[in-house]
Amino acid sequence: MPGTIDIFIEKGKEQAAARENAAALEQFYAAKALINAENRREKLPIILNNLGIIYHDLKQFQQSLDCFEECMTFYEQDERGKGLTYRNLGCVYHSKGDFEKVESLYTKAEEHLAVVKDLRVLAVLYADFSRFHIDKGTFDEAISYADRSIHLYESKAVEINKFMGFAHIFKGRALKEKGSCTPALAAFKQALSIFEDLAMPHVAVDAYEQLYLFHKEQGDKEKAFDYLEKFHELKTNKLTAEHNLTLSDMEVRYQLRAEKEKTQLQQKYIDLQLQMNEELKANNNRLELEVRKRKAKESELQDLNKELEFFASTASHDMRAPLRGIVSYSQILKRKIKDDDLLEFVDYIENSGHKMSRLLSDLLNYAKAGLDPKDFKHIEGDAVAAMAISNLRAQIQERDAQINVGDLPSVFANTSYLLQVFQNLISNALKYQPQGQKAVIDISGSSDEKSVHFQIQDNGIGIASGDLDLIFEPFRRLESAHIYEGSGIGLATVKKIVERLGGTIRVCSEVGKGSCFSISFPNIKQDIYEIA
Question: Does this model's pTM top 0.90?
Answer without folding.
Answer: no
